[in-house]
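Students often ask what a holo structure prediction actually looks like on paper. The answer is less mysterious than it sounds. You provide the chain, you provide the ligand, and the output is a string of discrete structure tokens encoding the 3D arrangement of the protein together with flavin mononucleotide.
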Amino acid sequence: MASKFLPSRLPLPLNSPRFHRLPSTNKTMIPIASFSSSSPSASSVDNSVRKQEEEEEELQEKVAQALTYHHQTKHGFANYARGPRGLDWANQPNPFRRYISAPLLPLLHFPTDRPIVAVTDDAPLYSSLFHSLPPPKPISHSTISQLFFDSLALSAWKTTGFSTWSLRVNPSSGNLHPTEAYLIAPPIQSISDSPFVAHYAPKEHSLELRATIPSGFFPNFFPDNSFLIGISSIFWREAWKYGERAFRYCNHDVGHAIGAIAMAAATLGWDVKLLDGFGYKDLEQLMGLQFFPDFKIPSRPIKGKFPEIEFEHPDCLILVFPNGSNPFDVNYKELSSVVNEFTNLEWKGKSNSLSKEHICWDIIYRTAEAVKKPLTIQKGEFLVDQFKSSGICSENSYKGFTIREVVRKRRSAVDMDGVTVMDRQTFYQILLHCLPSGKGEKHRRQSTLPFRALSWDAEVHAAIFVHRVIGLPKGLYFLVRNEDHLEELKMATRSEFKWEKPEGCPDDLPLYELASSDCRELAKHLSCHQDIASDGCFSLGMMAHFEPTLSEKGAWMYPRLFWETGVLGQVLYLEAHAVGISATGIGCFFDDPVHELLGFRGSKFQSLYHFTVGGPVLDKRIMSLPAYPGPSIDA
Ligand SMILES: Cc1cc2nc3c(=O)[nH]c(=O)nc-3n(C[C@H](O)[C@H](O)[C@H](O)COP(=O)(O)O)c2cc1C
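The corresponding structure tokens follow.
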């Protein structure tokens, strides 16, 4: 199969920016939908029909912009997406945002190594969390510290002698870390006597207090013992290296961060859910990000001094609440009007500068503008599904690590050894933990850990290249994560595919064998010729139900599809480490050749993210240093 779908000669990347002229636009806010209640006259009916048509047209233009971005940032065998020609090291963005002069509140540190970490209620086993969550802990200085320590903190420093850099619990494409986080919480002893908004500073493992907020905010709107985490992205950090494709990677990273937060919260008996009724403007005001100046998006990529592109784009807001809380609703309309007043709070700290010079990749900002979500205020929108246990077929595959051991030891494999094999049961077990719904259920609703953080039905599937799984023929397989899509997938893929359940596959695992073949070379070439895609036990491409989702729900689903792939990627990283091997996210792949291999035409399904799982090769030239206290450099 491999050679059949590949061009005989694979050209080298050209990576040469072609600068088109595109219309110039201002960075503006999306208006929140307004509702009229007066009785209509003929002309007001005409007006409202026209207004509706205009709104519909605007929505379609936004979807068109998301699609244009997506197609323009595809890598092809002959042409990589536009990016810088080489790296401008003098302007490498500082990976640590600070709010200068905001009070710095240190968080607590925790032991990471055995035998200090015993398996107790405080340190549950990784695999146990997929069955049930422990009883909820109260919010305290200690539990909040633990949440960040096990999700977004530094995990190590690395040095070769010539260069030194930090790594984090959450992964990031190119280790560039565009993702920032905010804690919005009620008063917490030893942190703040008033409810507050704070920025998380991972290098210091501390909170930067940005504002205190009205005392009624939490009791009026949220269940007891709950708080919020806001996530934002600095596109420039990722664009510095990856140019136009960077917007995709920032959103993968948001998904990884959501997954990391959901897992760390689960350890504390806390459930998490996106507060996705909020609009972009609400998020911006809640996190205090409205102070970044607006800028005029240029009509083409431009190099120069653009400090304004170091702004933070608010992505999402996560509600963290005690597992098992009684059902509750969120009054987005009232919340939004309260949050509107946050602009008048006293915001502390001035954002630091990250680079002296920049390249403004205009399409990123134009697309970020088009995919901003408006406020949606339907009642009953906030649904928390009951916690569902994931499927289990091989508990013994897990090596008995605690959750902290798994999340803090997670590392991307730079190379895979090409020899490690996985047994079939372990493979099936890993895939069972990648499914959105509980065991025995039809897969669609996202109700298992950590997918339950997401507020939509699963839209992402996985096409899997099995390379080294004992008891399974090498070949192409497909994991259907939303079984409502099964027939559509069968129709959309090559007619010669088998769609047969493989031998020994658990009944509740919707895994299908499509074709038997040695796909190692194929997988490697499709993932930008990277050996990691062929030298592991398996690699995969995450296939999103793409254009229908954007057309039906809106352009704002575009980043969300990437978030879903990031959460799935986070599970793959953790599963690999929990069974004693490793994994690596793969953002670099040739989009349309992957679609061609599967038989996808048009944009109904699109590959958004690749991944590899296997035995890592450790680079002995790189020395590891503890995360805290780190060397005193900005790396
Ligand atoms: C969205 C995403 C895309 C990535 N793409 C690649 C890739 O194409 N090739 C690769 O070798 N590593 C890739 N990585 C791995 C990152 O380089 C790695 O996460 C980063 O260097 C930090 O190291 P860590 O994961 O060990 O913390 C990717 C990671 C993420 C999160």
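The radius of gyration is 24 Å.
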